[in-house]
Design a protein that fits this description.
CATH architecture of the largest domain: 3-Layer(aba) Sandwich
Structural class: alpha/beta
CATH superfamily of the largest domain: P-loop containing nucleotide triphosphate hydrolases
Helix content: 25-40%
Strand order of the largest sheet: 6-7-8-3-9-10
CATH topology of the largest domain: Rossmann fold
Largest sheet: 6 strands, mixed
Number of domains: 2
CATH class of the largest domain: Alpha Beta
Number of helices: 9
Strand content: 25-35%
Amino acid sequence: MGAGPIEVSDVWKGFDATPVLRGVSLELAKGETFVVMGGSGSGKTVLLRLIAGLLRPDRGQIRLLGRNIERLSEEDLLPIRRRVGYVFQGAALFDSLTVLDNVAYPLREHTRLGEREIRERVVHFLSLVGLNGDVLPLLPAELSGGMRKRVGIARALVGEPELMLFDEPTAGLDPTNARLVAELISQVHAGLCDTAVVVTHDLELTRAVADRVAVLIDGCFAAVGPRDVVLKSTDAAVQAFLAGEAR
């Protein structure tokens, strides 16, 4: 294998004797946005959590930012995870914390910055996702779904990661907010963090942000390649999946 920021080699993962991923392999090059498409329950989120070290594979190897992580302890994983931004499907904001405290959380946990500098960085990264200082005192319950997603992206970016992982970033959003999130991912790619993995079933998002695409069907990649090649695939299973998502 080469020296990309993510290398997944023959990874298997199952739950309660039910296989979810069956021998998945991929290599991500620095500077690309790699989109993993698949239907509900196809294992997309499981793959992303394996890459982040939140789950361990049953078999196979996962190399993240130059380290094999599949057998690392939580303590040894921490410094690697700090170099990765993870945007959870539901944003995963702390319900009892304000927007300021949610976005500041990684800085307070992992840096020695003073509160003034933390606040300045929070305001800066919120501005990058199109939110102003008015949202700082708000709780997640006071935000729209699209705003929660943007706060989640700001929190993932505030630590200036080398790699971004997005789990279904447009799920549950109306078309306007979905387009805004797609634009944000493109902006992040262009100016802040140039390497990303996005898992989604959203065909429009894939068209908007992907350099390469993999289609996950029955625990295996049915197609992997440049976006336009995969989206025009003649493979029957890939065609059937894409036709279903286009409806």
